[in-house]
Design brief:
The complex is a heterodimer of chains A (about 325) and B (about 270). With about 325 residues, chain A is mainly alpha-helical. Helix content of chain A is about 75%, strand content about 0%. In chain A, helix 1 runs antiparallel to helix 11 and helix 10 runs parallel beside helix 13. Chain B contains 10 helices and 11 strands. The chains are: A mainly alpha (about 325), B alpha/beta (about 270). Chain B: This is ABC transporter ATP-binding protein.
Chain lengths: ~325, ~270
């Protein structure tokens, strides 16, 4: 019984939140890795792209809520998501036309684009705060729990409760669908293969009649969709605050690099590695250990290795360790 | 380096930039083709140009091929042979001169548009998609085709049987000779009206080289004119209907393959006596 209680407590506080957070990081890291693989630079504006897409979705959700539209137990934000994606696509394509296109024409080296993306980051950051404000915004509605802790306790008779938030379930399900669709697109469709070809060898893609501008456009469209979905899922699960997205850039980059930049599979693996290490290291293990250890050995302290304030330090420590032993990341950074 | 505002300033950090697969081409921006009847099937006429803002590499260089012919460009290293091929394909901007194909002036066309016009080009290096399978490489070759290209793929597997065996393998794992076969196969997938090969036998063993030459002759026999640059000048001129010797970006000698092989100067300077 104690073992079961420990397992439930572990699932409740570590496994399930880690899965959800990992899915969000994986989706974010996929976007970063796509830009890296195809456009060949690290896109520092990705966090704020997520914020922008999520912001549009939040505004749209509020509007729908004011009209009395709802999806019943599901959050209304899911209905607003396509609009968020569409506007975000428009935003990225406009940014590309106005900014990145110029540097592509000049055959600027990718490191220039990295710096350019930082400029884009600050502007997008400003736009988002200007429109929606810097504070916390709530836009979650619908059923809060899929399984609530109390129901779980009465159902199983265990001491520990297991709660699964609707948003956590939605996050994982959406992430699975999105990743499957992305892999199908990249490996099975003509357009997806042309993107991989362009990533592999730009000149030869040109010789095969692949239009580079079209590949770039497709990339931005996919990145916008991934970023908006990741941003909205994160916002639903936690809360929408522009600055958190800016900070989210750090674990997302860590995830993409740990997995191997340019490798979509690596981005997913990296997302989960980073998420689980952050959650496990900042989790107070007192409860779980209390169940598992004999009473005399039960810990007095919280058994928390690091305070949650240091969670970014964890991602970067993992990043350093992985890079020391595998400089190309867990999955050899292949072409997208 | 420091003078170039868009350069990388020596940065090689692969965690923020991805140096692999970057394009070096400075493709011609898309314009439109003009009718230019008469003249040879393909001609790059008095081409002058170089990369970016750099000096001219080609000086009044003229290369032409007729239908059903094999034309070969030979010459010392750095003579601008590959550059001439790239110029014909629109991979760099010409400062002067014209490229005409099949009665049309295509000087202003982008490389993609030239592929659509029926030109196929196999560059000297990086001529396959290493991370993609053999089959995907061929599919990418047929990118501009909207019809069913499975028949063409079968023909290519018949021409290069080894590729059929390795169709599911990443092309990057193949041997040098097999890679060249993938490269030529990729270019043939569009069913081109003209095939351009830049040193197809570079870096392959002599036996494989003979076989590749055989295959190239096979391709030419089907009526596709072939324009190629070759290091193995003697062997290449033997199969050539037309030969060009380039020196320092300009035409030095022109003639049939046999004429050039017989020419005293050409033999002394370029064929080792």
């Amino acid at each position: 019984m104690d073992f079961l209680n420990a397992l439930v407590a572990l699932s409740n506080y570590v496994l399930i939140p880690g899965m959800a957070y990992g899915s969000q990081l994986a989706l974010g890291a996929l976007g970063v890795t796509m830009v890296y693989g195809i456009l060949r630079f690290s896109n520092f504006a990705h966090g704020d792209t997520m914020a922008f897409g999520a912001m549009v979705t939040v505004l749209m959700t509020w509007w729908l809520q004011s009209l009395g539209v709802s999806l019943g137990p599901l959050p209304t934000a899911l209905l607003a998501l396509p609009v968020g994606i569409a506007v975000c696509i428009g935003m990225l394509l406009a940014t590309d036309r106005a900014v990145y296109h110029f540097y592509r024409e000049k055959k600027a080296k990718p490191v220039i684009l990295v710096i350019v993306s930082m400029g884009v980051m600050f502007i997008m950051n400003g736009i988002v705060r200007f429109i929606i404000g810097p504070g916390d915004q709530r836009f979650l509605d619908g059923e809060r729990f899929l399984v609530s802790a109390r129901d779980f306790k009465t159902m199983t008779g265990l001491q520990e409760g297991l709660a699964i938030k609707t948003t956590q379930a939605i996050t994982v399900v959406t992430a699975v669908i999105v990743v499957a669709a992305l892999f199908w697109f990249l490996n099975r469709t003509r357009a997806g293969k042309s993107m991989r070809a362009y990533s592999d060898n730009e000149d030869l893609a040109l010789l095969s009649g692949i239009n580079p501008e079209r590949v770039v456009m497709l990339t931005w469209i996919i990145v916008a969709a991934l970023a908006t979905i990741a941003g909205v899922l994160y916002g639903l699960d936690k809360t929408f605050k522009p600055f958190t997205y800016f900070q989210l850039l750090l674990p997302i980059f860590a995830a993409a690099i740990v997995g191997g930049l340019g490798s979509p599979l690596g981005a997913i693996a990296g997302g989960f590695v980073i998420a689980f290490s952050e959650v496990t290291i900042t989790y107070a293990w007192k409860k779980v250990l209390g169940y598992l250890m004999p009473e005399s050995l039960a810990p007095d302290s919280l058994m928390q290795l690091l305070s949650t304030d240091y969670k970014f330090a964890v991602s970067f420590t993992i990043l350093l360790i992985v890079l020391l032993f595998r400089p190309t990341g867990l999955f050899k950074g292949k072409a997208v | 380096m420091s003078g170039d505002p868009y350069g990388d300033r020596g940065n090689k950090d692969a965690t923020i930039v991805n140096p692999r697969g970057t394009g070096t081409a400075q493709p011609v921006k898309g314009g439109s083709a003009k009718a230019a009847p008469n003249g040879p099937f393909l001609i790059g006429e008095t081409m002058t140009g170089g990369y970016g803002n750099g000096p001219d590499i080609l000086h009044d260089c003229t290369i032409s091929v007729e239908k059903g012919e094999i034309a070969v460009i030979v010459g010392p290293n750095g003579a601008g042979k590959s550059t001439a091929m790239k110029a014909i394909f629109g991979m760099l901007d010409l400062r002067a001169g014209h490229v005409r194909l099949d009665g049309e002036d295509i000087t202003a066309l982008s490389p993609q548009a030239r592929v659509a016009k029926g030109m196929g080009f196999v560059p000297q290096t990086s001529n396959i998609f290493t991370s993609m399978t053999v089959e995907e490489n061929l599919e990418m070759g047929a990118f501009i085709r909207t019809d069913d290209f499975s028949g063409t793929m079968e023909q290519i597997f018949d021409l290069f049987p080894i590729l059929r065996e390795k169709r599911r393998q990443p092309a990057g794992e193949l041997s040098g000779g097999q890679r060249q076969q993938v490269a030529v196969g990729r270019a043939l997938m569009t069913q081109p009206k003209l095939l351009m090969l830049d040193e197809p036998t570079a870096g392959v063993s002599p036996i494989v080289m003979d076989e590749l030459f055989e295959r190239i002759i096979d391709v030419a026999r089907t009526g596709i004119p072939v324009l190629m640059v070759e290091q193995n000048a003697r062997q290449a001129l033997e199969i050539a209907d037309k030969g060009y010797v380039m020196v320092q970006g300009a035409n030095a000698y022109t003639g049939t393959g046999k004429e050039l092989l017989a020419d005293e100067d050409v033999r002394k300077s370029f064929l080792g006596g």
